[in-house]
Each structure stands twice: as structure tokens, then as C-alpha cells.
Design a protein that fits this description.
The structure holds two protein chains of two kinds.
Chain A lengths: L3 H6 L5 H12 L5 H5 L1 H10 L7 E5 L8 H6 L4 E5 L9 E7 L2 E4 L4 E2 L1 H12 L12 E4 L6 H4 L8 E7 L2 E9 L15 E6 L4 E7 L2 E3 L17 H15 L3 E9 L3 E8 L6 H5 L4 H9 L8 H11 L3
Antiparallel strand pairs in A: 1-6, 2-3, 2-6, 3-4, 4-5, 7-8, 7-12, 8-9, 9-10, 10-11, 12-13
Helix pairs in contact in A: 8-11
Chain B lengths: L1 H25 L12 E12 L2 E9 L6 E9 L4 E6 L6 E10 L2 E12 L2 E2 L11 H4 L5 H4 L10 H11 L5 H15 L1 E2 L8 H7 L1 E2 L1 H14 L4 E8 L3 E3 L3 E8 L2 E6 L4 E2 L1 E2 L3 E6 L5 E4 L1 E12 L16 H27 L8 H11 L2 H24 L4 H25 L13 H18 L1 H23 L1 H9 L3 H13 L6 H6 L3 H7 L9
Parallel strand pairs in B: 8-9
Antiparallel strand pairs in B: 1-6, 1-18, 2-5, 2-17, 3-6, 4-5, 7-15, 10-12, 10-16, 11-18, 12-13, 13-14
The chains are: A alpha+beta, B alpha+beta.
Chain lengths: 313, 527
């Protein structure tokens, strides 16, 4: 174990402090639905001209289930999601279609009844935060960009940008593993790689709270990879602040083979493992943003500039 | 922002401290300081063991009188049925503890506070009536007539009385003569069973019971209503033996006499009266073992003449109030463990509800039941998952299954001889179903290790809350001073502003230690 003094020296942000100083203080409760509900998020992104995967259809009521068949009949690949799901729960990725049914990325075959069952589970709120009723929707399935494919085990890696008062303070690349079953969720076994914010190059990684240098399944080294479209990613993330208004949030990007960076979802309570991935604590950077004046944060361009300064800490 | 919270917390602590010390010092009324010398807190402890049949224990409970004030009564009945009855003739207040089927051990505790006052009487020089039976009202019958052990119409007793008082008809002189005789002639010897009046006169050796009976027999034979009074001589520590003395009705009042300790028409301020009449303090049937003793300590709270106090509530509801008072304590434990230590749980207050359920059945039995119900519930629910049942009906099916399991446990446990298990009917069904659901979903999404870890965290906190709630002292203290809830509120406020690292985070981020060791600490800090 490590002493609290040691962790404080590294500027490590703990859950209590994150909740009280940052999320409680800067995220008004009424704005949470904008990021918790993925459909609302998509709507807002579209309104502000920010890119996200195309929405195919949504199902809100049980009686709409009978129209599910015709809707997915002509689709070979799509992703089924609960609008209010948390931490990647309830997501089904359909990668192919054959005469038996739809084929998941894992190879498992789903019949129409299986998909209907899953959608009805979503509607009943099985995966939603708080167990309330939910809406199911289908969206475009991302094709992982070739540059990142070497580090992706059967899933799509995503990039999380954490912004404080609209200023990017830390970023992380999340790589799916066999253990995480293709999901980019650190709690489920994905690998997190810190990103040097100014140049968009990966640093070393973390897996299950331990430092690693290589991907556990693929063996490839984690550090030193250059993220494509990095400047676009940072710029889009910074612009998202004006669209949503949350003072402390995470923006998750995926990089599509054809379409480039797309915003997958936003998070009003970004986790703390990003600090392990970057081998440094958040507090010094957050405090640097606090010290900067309001004028340095007035436009997205200025905030981008500020993030370069902050990243030096 | 922090400062406001600290201020409010400080205000809560100070208010609670003020209210509590006020209660202790003045009791909300005006009581003189010397009164505090004679405040006592007495606990009657009865350890009983049943013989596998119906069991009953009855004990006379002390009452208010001009000499004593009884208050802040507190009963720990160990799940036996309990009720109080008043007897009109003797005026005694009797507590009954009953169990339809008792074959194990139980500990019953009755605690009360008493304020005692010494009192001295003047024996009126009135003339004793010729026909006491006609003179006094009918309710005095038992105090005038002869009884099996107080044989006031025994020939030897009457003859001896004639020798003692001769032709005297004045009550005060009669009393002095009887008193001098019994005190002077009968030797004191502690005995296992008290002699009757006649036996005492014959042998002239008796304990306090025998001497009192003889005194009463003489008094009744002389035409003065007389009764045995039993109680305790109060002194700090543990006592096993009660004491008896006599009260005679002269000049319109009952005047005490204790021949053993030499109190004539007076009682000092360490005599606690518990019953009247020639009974034993406690009677029981259906028990193979019975042991009782008194624990006496000083009391600091004066008698509160406060109809709004919790003690004014009926005894049956007091036990419910005690549970209610413990819920904030459980919540404090949960808040501390979640925010400061960082152990995850299923739901925020599930552990508190589980702890309350554990108090009804024993802890180990409760843990076993939780484990078993969650395990089988999880399997059942996974099977239902394959059938593709809709969520809400599936939840309802799990509730039904939990009910069936609980009924099964009750029947099997009862036949296996674990009678405590019947209290599982109070187990929170809904909580168990909800637990099963959360466990299953966590297992599916995050894997078995995470699900088990969270379940473990939940039960760990439930056990911690259970032990805290079991603390007798804490319960009694909270009941006496519900103002303590303000302190809990203040503590919760402080925990709510705790922004430091959680204990589990020190473990979770331990890898960062390597960074600290690798680079030498820089001269300037992160600032």
C-alpha cells in the first residue's frame, strides 16, 4: 500500500474530492440527462455540428417491438444500445448477417427473438442507471481505424478526453482485450494508455490497476503510438463544452476507418483510472485551470491553448 | 463552503451537549442538589433456562410512594411475551414474562431509576379498636386476619403477646413493647427458607423474614393491621438478597418497622420498597434453572416530570422506538464505510436493513440465510433468463421463490430444533429479491469476482452495523438522550465534507508508489 502523503505529492484525485470539489461543484444536476441519455447527447451534438455515429432507429415502447423485424431486416451490422445505460452495459454489437440470423462480433448467433428479448430488457430498464424505463436505439457500427487496429483486440479502442471548465486536462486511450470481451472498459479488463496531450502520442499503459508496457493479448508495445486526427479530436472535445455546459466531464471518441473521429458518448462522472494510465495526478492540472483567468477560457481556441500550458504540469 | 458545514456541525454538537447536560443537571425541572445523592440505577438480571415446556416468570415491580420515585424503566425481554398487571388489593404492580415453549436459556433484564427519601413517623397514641375486623374497611381484611405463616391466632403467639403488652391499649406503647421483644429476644440468623411466625417464636432464631412475620403476627393479634413489605437495601455493586420489614397501620398511615436493622417508625434513605404482602419477589414455573441478582449503580439523571419523554411511551412501543433510534447509527456506519473506507455495497442502506433483520434471528443464522437465499436466487434467476421472461414478471417470480425458500427454511429449521429460525419471517423479502437482482446483473456485467466482492462488502457493513446496534450501553444511552441524534447529524455533515482519499483508493493506486520511489522528490511540490 502507499501512504496518503505519497499520493498527495503526486496530486492524485480521489473519489471524495472529485465528487465534492468538481462534479458536485461544477456539474449542475439538471444537465445530467444531456449526457446520461445517449439519444439526447446525439441530438445536441448534431445541433452543434459535432460528429457522432449515425442513428438508425429508436424503440421507445413495447408495441414498437413488432416493427423491429422490418427495421433490422436489411441491416448487416449495427450496434444496439440502451439510451440510459452506464459503463457500456447492455450493448450488443452485430457484425454480420447470415441465413441463421445476426452474428455478434464474438461469433455468437442471434435470432430475431433474441434481439427482441434484448430490446425488451432495455425498455424495462435493466441496464439503465436507476432502473427506470429506457429507450433502445441502433446506430452505425464503427470500423476501427487501421492505425489503432494493431492495439485493438476484437473491439474498438476509444479515446477519453477529460475537460475541466472546458479545458482538456488529461486524455487516455482505452484498448479492449480478450478479458474485457471487446469492451473498452477498464473495470472489465481493458488496458488504459495515457496520452501526451500536446503531441497525441501514447505513454505506457495500465491494466487492472497495474502498470503494463505491452498489450496482454497482442504483445505489442503500448507506448509511442501516434493517434490519428489528434488535433481534430482535441478541438472537437473543447467545442463540446459549449454545447453541454458541464464543468467536469469526459468526452469519449472513436476513430472510424472512413469517417474519422466520432463522439461516442459523454460522461458527467469520468473515472479516476485515467491518472494511473498517465502516471500522474489530476489535481495539479485542475488547479492550474482554476488559477487561469476567465479570459483565458472564453473561447474554445483559448481553452485549447490553455490546455497545452496545463499539460506541461 | 467547508466553513459553513463545520459551523453547522459545531452548532449541532454544542446544542446536543447543552441539552444533554441540562437534562442531567436539572432534569428540566427544579431539583435540589442534595437530591442527587440518592439517585440509583438498578438492574434486575434474571438468567433462566427452560425445560422444554411453557415457562412463566412473575416479578413485582417497584412503585412510586411518598418515600420513593421510580422512573426511566427499561425492559430487555429477550423475545419473551411481557405484560404488566396491577393488583387492586395489595396495590402491587406485577410484570409477567411468558413463553409458550422455552427450552434454551434467556436473560431478562429490568432496569429502573429510583430516587429514595428517608422518612420518620410519629406513632399516634390512639386506642386500638376492640373489633378491628369491623372497624377497618373491607380491603384491610388481609392485613388483619391470621394467615398460614403469620399465625396471629396461634395460642402460643397470643399468650406471648399478653405477656408482652399486658392490658395496654395505646398503639404507641404496644408497638414499642412488641418491637423491644422481637428485637431483643429473637436472634438473627440467615436462613434458606424463612420460618413462620409460630416457628420463630418457638426457636427464637430467625432471618429477616421470620422476624418480620412474628412482628406482624403480634401486631395483628393486638388488633393493629400489619403487612410484610419486601425490597432491597441499596448500596452500589451486585446484590443477591432482598430484605423484608413490616408496616403497621396506625393513626391513618402505614408506619415502617425493621427489627433486624433497628429502625423504629422510620426508614433510612437506602431502603427501596418493591412489594407488599407475604410473597416472594419472584415466582416462576416451567424452568429448570433460575438465577437472579441486582446490579446497583448511581444514577445521574433526576426524575424528569416530562410527559414528552420517550419513557412515557407504553413499554411495548419502547422496544420499537429503540430500533428506530438505531437506524441513524447504522446509517452513520454506512456513510463512514462508503466515504472514508470505500467499500462498495449493493444499495446504500441495504446493510442497515440486513442488520436489523440479523437482530431478530441470530447473526450467524442470518448470514447463512442471506448467503443461501442469494445463491439459490441467483441460480433461479439465471435459469429464468434463458426463458426470456420480461424483467418485471421475472422479479416477481424471484420474490415468490424467495418466499418459498423462507417458508422451507422455517419448517426445516423448526424440526431441526432451531426455534429462533421462526423469526426469519421478519426477514426483508423485498431486500433479498433486490439483492439477488443486483448480484445477478453485476455478475453478468462485471463478472463473478466483482459480484462476490460487492456482496461481501454489503454483508461486512451489515455485520459492523449489527454489532454496533447490539451495544446495550449505546441503546440505553440513546433512549435516555435522543438528543444524541443531533451529534450523529453533525458527524454525517463532517463525513459529507470529507474530500480526502478513501482507504481502498490507497490500495487501488498503489502502483503510483513506484513513481515516488523511482524519482527523487523534487524540491518544489506539485504547486
Amino acid at each position: 500500500m502507499i501512504g496518503p502523503a505519497g499520493l498527495r505529492r503526486l496530486g492524485l484525485l480521489g473519489m471524495n474530492r472529485r465528487n465534492s470539489r468538481y462534479t458536485l461543484a461544477h456539474n449542475p444536476r439538471r444537465l445530467y440527462p444531456l449526457v446520461d441519455n445517449k439519444l439526447l447527447t446525439k441530438e445536441i451534438l448534431q445541433k452543434h455540428g459535432l460528429p457522432s455515429p449515425e442513428l438508425y432507429f429508436q424503440i421507445q415502447n413495447y408495441y414498437e417491438l413488432r416493427f423491429l423485424g422490418p427495421r433490422i431486416e436489411h441491416l448487416n451490422e449495427f450496434v444496439l444500445k440502451p439510451a440510459r445505460g452506464a459503463e457500456g452495459r447492455g450493448i450488443v454489437v452485430v457484425a454480420d448477417r447470415n441465413e441463421k440470423g445476426w452474428v455478434k462480433a464474438s461469433g455468437e448467433i442471434l435470432s430475431r427473438a433474441d434481439i427482441e428479448y434484448h430490446v425488451s430488457n432495455i425498455l424495462a430498464g435493466l441496464y439503465s442507471l436507476g432502473g427506470t424505463d429506457d429507450v433502445a436505439f441502433a446506430e452505425y457500427r464503427i470500423m476501427c481505424h487501421t492505425r489503432l487496429a494493431s492495439l485493438a483486440y476484437r473491439g474498438v479502442p476509444d479515446i477519453r478526453v477529460v475537460l475541466y471548465q472546458g479545458v482538456p486536462v488529461m486524455c487516455m486511450l482505452r484498448l479492449p482485450t480478450r478479458e474485457s470481451d471487446g469492451r473498452a472498459n477498464l473495470h472489465q479488463g481493458a488496458v488504459g494508455a495515457g496520452i501526451e496531450m500536446r503531441r497525441g502520442v501514447t505513454l505506457a499503459g495500465v491494466h487492472h490497476n497495474r502498470f503494463v508496457d505491452r498489450h496482454p493479448d497482442l504483445g505489442a508495445p503500448i507506448a509511442g503510438m501516434s493517434i490519428p486526427f489528434w488535433d481534430d479530436i482535441l478541438k472537437t472535445a473543447t467545442q463540446a463544452y459549449e454545447a453541454f455546459g458541464l464543468g467536469y466531464m469526459g468526452v469519449d471518441f472513436v476513430i472510424d476507418q472512413l469517417l474519422g473521429p466520432l463522439i461516442l458518448e459523454l460522461n458527467a462522472r469520468p473515472g479516476l483510472n485515467i491518472q494511473l494510465a498517465n502516471r500522474t495526478g489530476l489535481i495539479p492540472r485542475l488547479e492550474a485551470v482554476d488559477r487561469a483567468g476567465k479570459t483565458e477560457r472564453s473561447t474554445w481556441a483559448k481553452r485549447l491553448e490553455l490546455s497545452r500550458v496545463v499539460a506541461g504540469r | 463552503m467547508n466553513r459553513t458545514a463545520y459551523l453547522i456541525a459545531a452548532l449541532l454538537f454544542v446544542t446536543a451537549g447543552f441539552l444533554i447536560s441540562n437534562k442531567v443537571r436539572t432534569g428540566g425541572g427544579d431539583t435540589a442538589i442534595e437530591v442527587s445523592r440518592n439517585l440509583w440505577r438498578v438492574t434486575v438480571v434474571m438468567n433462566i433456562k427452560g425445560e422444554g415446556a411453557r415457562a412463566k416468570v412473575r416479578m413485582t415491580l417497584p412503585k412510586d410512594s411518598p418515600r420513593q420515585t421510580i422512573y426511566n424503566e427499561h425492559f430487555e425481554n429477550d423475545e419473551m411475551t411481557f405484560y404488566i398487571r396491577e393488583r387492586p388489593v395489595s396495590g402491587n404492580r406485577i410484570g409477567f414474562w411468558r413463553s409458550e415453549f422455552l427450552d434454551g436459556s434467556k436473560t431478562l433484564e429490568y432496569t429502573f431509576s429510583a430516587q429514595l427519601r428517608g422518612r420518620t413517623f410519629a406513632v399516634a397514641p390512639e386506642i386500638v379498636p376492640w373489633q378491628p375486623a369491623q372497624f377497618y374497611p373491607p380491603e384491610f381484611k388481609t392485613w388483619i386476619e391470621s394467615s398460614k405463616l403469620i399465625q396471629s391466632d396461634n395460642t402460643l403467639v397470643r399468650r406471648q403477646l399478653k405477656t408482652i403488652i399486658g392490658r395496654e391499649r395505646r398503639a404507641d406503647r404496644i408497638m414499642q413493647k412488641i418491637y423491644d421483644f422481637v428485637r431483643g429476644e429473637v436472634k438473627y440468623k440467615s436462613e434458606k427458607g424463612s420460618k413462620s411466625a409460630a416457628q420463630t417464636l418457638e426457636k427464637l432464631v430467625a432471618d429477616c423474614g421470620g422476624q418480620a412475620r412474628l412482628f406482624a403476627a403480634f401486631s395483628r393479634a393486638a388488633g393493629i393491621p400489619s403487612r410484610i413489605v419486601g425490597g432491597l437495601i441499596i448500596q452500589g455493586g451486585v446484590k443477591r438478597i432482598t430484605h423484608v420489614w413490616v408496616e403497621n397501620y396506625i393513626g391513618g398511615e402505614w408506619i415502617p418497622f425493621d427489627v433486624v436493622n433497628g429502625h423504629y417508625a422510620t426508614l433510612p434513605d437506602d431502603y427501596l420498597e418493591m412489594y407488599r404482602g407475604d410473597y416472594a419477589l419472584v415466582k416462576h414455573i416451567g424452568l429448570q434453572k433460575f438465577d437472579s441478582f441486582f446490579m446497583i449503580g448511581t444514577e445521574h439523571i433526576p426524575p424528569v416530570d416530562n410527559p414528552w419523554s420517550l419513557y412515557a411511551l407504553p413499554v411495548h412501543f419502547q422496544s420499537m422506538v429503540k430500533i428506530i433510534l438505531l437506524i441513524p447509527v447504522g446509517a452513520l456506519v454506512v456513510a463512514f464505510v462508503r466515504s472514508v473506507i470505500g467499500i462498495p455495497t449493493f444499495g446504500t442502506f441495504t446493510p442497515v436493513l440486513l442488520a436489523i433483520a440479523f437482530r431478530e434471528i441470530s447473526l450467524w443464522l442470518g448470514l447463512g440465510c442471506v448467503g443461501m437465499i442469494v445463491f439459490f436466487g441467483w441460480i433461479f434467476r439465471s435459469l429464468l433468463d434463458r426463458l426470456k421472461i420480461l424483467v418485471i414478471p421475472r422479479l416477481a417470480m424471484v420474490v415468490t421463490m424467495v418466499t418459498m425458500m423462507v417458508l422451507g427454511i422455517m419448517i426445516v429449521g423448526f424440526h431441526a430444533g432451531i426455534h429462533n429460525i421462526l423469526y426469519i419471517s421478519l426477514f426483508p423479502f423485498v431486500i433479498m429479491t433486490w439483492l439477488i437482482e443486483r448480484f445477478s446483473v453485476t455478475e453478468i456485467e462485471d463478472g463473478v469476482p466483482t459480484a462476490i466482492r460487492t456482496l461481501f462488502g454489503t454483508t461486512l457493513i451489515a455485520v459492523a452495523a449489527y454489532y454496533l446496534m447490539e451495544e446495550h450501553q449505546l441503546r440505553a444511552y440513546l433512549f435516555a438522550f435522543p438528543e444524541f441524534l443531533l451529534v450523529i447529524m453533525g458527524l454525517l455533515l463532517l463525513i459529507g465534507r470529507y474530500t480526502g482519499l478513501r482507504l481502498t483508493e490507497l490500495w487501488r493506486f498503489r502502483e503510483m508508489n513506484r513513481l515516488n520511489n523511482e524519482e527523487r522528490p523534487k524540491a518544489e511540490g506539485p504547486e
